[in-house]
């Protein structure tokens, strides 16, 4: 009778042990560490950071003022030329267009190189105006290049200088004119007439 009771007790202990073992297995991940439940779907973890922009917002923009372009101007000027025999200095009027004082002087120099009337023969058509610059004192420096076919006799050279100065002295801002030959202050334009540096307004 005692033996039967002892077997029943052993059986009860084994059964309790098996139940306990099954419960521990469900609560572990197999390595003895506890398993935490994954985050619920649809939730987001809080994040921190800088430089983010709230959706739907825009940065303020600054309107830039439109750049105003200089207006095209017109002016009627007197241009000086000669006759087909280079016997006298002649004048005629023409219209030039420009945006500023630099373009105005450039347009006047171009007018000295051409003529729409055969009666007026330009004295500068065979030569080149390389550059021009007006300083704050009103001295206009004109750099010219005399070509092989642009040389004139003494009378033609004097007319060429007069045509240039008389045409440019129409502009009040021009107080004096310094004519350079290929960037140099030469004694003469073409070898006949002495050049002053600068030539002052009469």
Write down the overall geometry: elongated
Rounded to the nearest angstrom, the radius of gyration is 50 Å
Q: Taking strands numbered 1, 2, ... along the chain, how are they ordered across the largest sheet?
A: 3-4-5-6
User: Strand portion, in percent?
Assistant: 15-25%
**Cα distance, first to last residue?**
155 Å
Q: Which parts are unreliable, with pLDDT below 50 for 5 consecutive residues or more?
A: 25-30
Helix content: 25-40%
SSE order: HEEHEEHEE
Main sheet attributes: strand count, strand direction, barrel closure: 4 strands, mixed
Judged by helices, strands and strand pairing, the structural class is: alpha+beta
Helix count? Answer: 3
What is the arithmetic mean of pLDDT? Answer: 81
- What's the β-strand tally? 6
Commentary on this structure:
By secondary structure, the chain is of the alpha+beta class. The protein contains 3 helices and 6 strands. The strands form 2 sheets. It has a 4-stranded mixed sheet, with helices on one face. The protein has a two-stranded antiparallel sheet with strand order 1-2. The longest helix is centred in the N-terminal third of the chain and has 25 residues, at 2-26. It is elongated, with a radius of gyration of 50 Å.
How are the SSEs ordered, and which strands pair?
Blueprint: H1 2-26, E1 73-82, E2 89-98, H2 101-111, E3 128-134, E4 139-145, H3 154-168, E5 176-181, E6 199-200
Parallel strand pairs: 4-5
Antiparallel strand pairs: 1-2, 3-4, 5-6
Summarize the model shown:
With 202 residues, this protein is α+β, with helices and mostly antiparallel strands. It is built from 3 helices and 6 strands, in the order αββαββαββ.
């Amino acid at each position: 009778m005692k033996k039967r009771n002892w077997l029943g007790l052993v059986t009860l202990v084994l059964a309790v042990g098996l139940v306990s073992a099954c419960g521990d297995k469900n609560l572990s991940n197999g390595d003895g560490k506890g398993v935490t439940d994954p985050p619920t779907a649809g939730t987001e973890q809080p994040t921190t950071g800088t430089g983010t922009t709230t959706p739907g917002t825009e940065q303020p923009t600054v309107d830039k003022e439109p750049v105003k372009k200089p207006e095209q101007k017109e002016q009627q000027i007197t241009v000086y030329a000669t006759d087909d025999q280079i016997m006298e200095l002649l004048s005629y009027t023409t219209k030039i267009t420009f945006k500023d004082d630099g373009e105005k002087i450039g347009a006047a120099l171009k007018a000295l190189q051409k003529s729409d009337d055969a009666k007026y023969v330009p004295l500068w058509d065979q030569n080149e105006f390389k550059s021009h610059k007006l300083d704050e004192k009103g001295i206009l420096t004109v750099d010219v290049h005399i070509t092989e076919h642009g040389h004139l006799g003494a009378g033609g050279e004097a007319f060429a200088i007069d045509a240039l100065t008389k045409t440019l002295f129409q502009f009040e801002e021009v107080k004096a004119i310094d004519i350079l030959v290929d960037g140099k202050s030469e004694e003469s334009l073409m070898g006949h007439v002495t050049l002053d540096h600068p030539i002052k307004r009469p």
